[in-house]
Amino acid sequence: MSNAPWVTYRPAIKVLDCSIRDGGLINGHFFDDNLVEAVYRACIAAGVDYMEMGYKSDKKIFAPDKHGKWKFCDEDDVRRIVGDNKGDLKLSVMADAERTDYRNDILPRDKSVFDMVRVATYIHQIPTAVDMIKDAHDKGYEVSVNLMAASVVQDRELDEALDVFARTPADVVVLVDSYGVFYSEQIRDYTERYIKALEGTGKQVGIHTHNNLQLAFANTIEAVIVGANRLDATINGIGRGAGNCPMELLLSFLRNPKFKMRPILQCIQDHFVPLRQKIEWGCQIPYIITAHFNKHPRSAIELRGSPDKDNYVAFYDRCVEE
Fold it and tell me: Are strands 14-17 and 116-121 parallel, antiparallel or unpaired?
């Protein structure tokens, strides 16, 4: 181990861009092809390891005429952007437990452009998630499982969930701070807990943070220091509500010479600066309030879309009463 680890890098670390997937939660996944292609090209040029294109959502639950194409990630739509994707960048898609017709909509790997399926599950959905993990693995994919809203999972349930995941064929288990509430000490403890639970399995631990307390980047770094090797980030921090760990900050921190920040900055300048004129993301006071109460930010998102969007005190008082 180097006496000055901040001047070296850890080759085992892999970075996943989820700009289109998490960012799509802001605008119903109605991103045009030009933006998606720009993110794809930026990820390739920047040396990013994975790009998550969106969701595999069940069209019987989510009406296609009310959601953009990246809510469903049909193979033809993805291939129109990436072709056969023959480079080093791997493609990921997220499948929500109980919201994905995974047996039919996730094709065998040799018929798909995707390399990885990321199964997202809440604690009460784990039996379904385990079946989804096995299904994706048997079809030939790399598989990740993201346990959502870890901040509201009881300790005993978390330990049981990690034990279950350790016995699945998942390659990665991701710690998800869905509500953006964790401080560095908590991230450290949770990451160590995940690593210990998966010890000896060969599985990697990942981290996905939200920026409600403006700690998404700092908390991602904390997870890296403890030993997480799979890191989620988004260009310009785009993502649901307060957004995610900014890719441009993360690549700068990692110091691996394969990562290049300039293509990300170019993408921000050309595409995300204009996009901010159309949709809002990033830390706003209502997101700080929901994080303070360890609540899902949906009420803050609703407030930010209303004429009363800056009535912070009334919103705080409402959260106190709930």
Answer: unpaired
CA 305/CA 165 separation, integer angstroms: 38
Distance CA 93, CA 71 (A): 10
Domain, as residue range, for 164: 9-275
Measured between alpha carbons, how far is 91 from 40 in angstroms, rounded to an integer?
10
Cβ-defined contacts of 266-274 (< 8 Å, 24+):
266/42, 267/38, 267/39, 267/41, 267/42, 267/235, 268/235, 268/236, 270/38, 271/34, 271/35, 271/38, 271/39, 272/235, 272/236, 272/238
The number of distinct structural domains making up the chain is: 2
CA atoms of 56 and 83, how far apart (whole Å):
19
Angle at 28 between CA 134 and CA 69, to 5 degrees: 65
pLDDT of residue 1: 47
Pairing of strands 50-55, 230-233: unpaired
* Residues 255, 210 within the same domain: yes
What is the phi-psi region of residue 100: left when phi exceeds 0, alpha when psi lies from -120 to 50, beta otherwise?
A: beta
Is residue 109 within 8 Å of residue 141, measured between CB atoms?
Answer: yes
Express each pLDDT in 236-260 by its tens digit. 999 999 999 999 999 999 999 999 9
Spell out the alpha helix ranges (H) of 47-141.
75-82, 102-105, 126-138
Q: Cα(56)–Cα(117) distance, rounded to whole angstroms?
A: 9
Q: Among all chains, which residue has been given the structure tokens 């997101």?
A: 287
**Cα–Cα distance, 252 to 259 (Å, whole number):** 8
The answer on 220 and 72 residing in a single domain is yes
Average pLDDT over residues 188-214: 98
Instruction: Note whether 212 and 181 are within 8 A (CB).
Output: yes
CA 154 from centre of chain? 22
